[in-house]
C-alpha cells in the first residue's frame, strides 16, 4: 500500500488473525463481536480520519454511531490538541503518540499525532494528517506481517515512529557539524539566525518525544489483561528506542549551546578587538591633540609665529611623537 493511500482512505478497518495475517473489512462492521468470534480473528484495527471532506466517512461520524464506546474515549480521540500520553480507562487504554512531519515542504518539528483507543479485541486509531509510520504498518500487513495483538500493534507503531525520527535527528547533528565549521568565518551574524532555528526545532521535538517515552513506559507496566509479556517487551524496546532518540536530541541541544557560546565569544573577541583599536587610536592622538591645542591658543609669546619653518617643524615633531607611540604600543603588544 503506497503512502498516498493514507490520503485516499479516510476510514479503513483490518481484522488480524493473530498469526501475521489480516484482511480489510467494512468499518461499519468492525464493532460487531460476532464477526470476530465467527471468523476466529484476534482483533480489529480501525483507522479513521477525524474530519472528512464533503460526504466522505470520518472518525467523528463513525464514533458517534458506536453506542458501546465511552464518551470520555470519544472526546479523547477527537480532541483538537493532544500531547503524547497513556491513560488507562477500564480495561482499555488511550495512547497518544506523535511522529515527525516528513511531508514535502513541511517542518519536521510540526509533529503529527495519532490517537489510539486500545482494548482486548480492537484498536481504534484517529488521524488528522497522514503519518508515514502508519503507512509502514499497512505495508507490513500487505506482506503478511500484521501485528498479532493490540499491544504488538502499539509497539510496532512506536518503533516505526522512532525509525522515522532518527534520520531527522541525524540531520540536526550534521547541521551542527556545519555550524562548527562556520565558526572560522569572519561573518557569523547569519550563523546566529540559523543556529537559533535549529535550537528551536530541537526544543519542539524534545517537547513531544520526552512524554512519548513516558507514555510507552507507562503502558508497558500497566496491569491490562490483553497485554502479554512479549507485548510488554516490544513496548519496552520502543521506549528504549525513543529514549535513544531523546538522548540524541539532548546531545544536539548541548552541542548547539556550545556553538552558541562560541559564537558569543567570537563576537566578544571582535568587539574587544575593535574597542582596542579605537582606544589605541585615541591614545595616539591624545598627546598630539594636546600639543596642537597648546600651539593654537591666541596669546603672546607663541614660538615660531614669525618663522616660515615653524609649521613644518611642528608637523615633523608630531609625526615623530606619533611614531614613537606606535612603537611603544607594539612593544606592549597592544597593536
- The CATH superfamily of the largest domain is known as CorA soluble domain-like
Largest sheet: 7 strands, mixed
Any idea how many domains? 2
Which class of secondary structure composition applies to the elements? alpha+beta
Succession of helices and strands: HEEHEHHEEEEHHHHH
Kindly report how far apart the N and C termini lie. Answer: 70 Å
Average residue-wise pLDDT: 83
Radius of gyration over C-alpha positions, nearest whole angstrom: 35 Å
CATH architecture of the largest domain: 2-Layer Sandwich
What is the CATH third-level topology name of the largest domain? Beta Polymerase, domain 2
Strand content: 5-15%
| Uncertain stretches of 5 or more adjacent residues | none
* Shape estimate: rod-shaped
Quantity of strands, as a count: 7
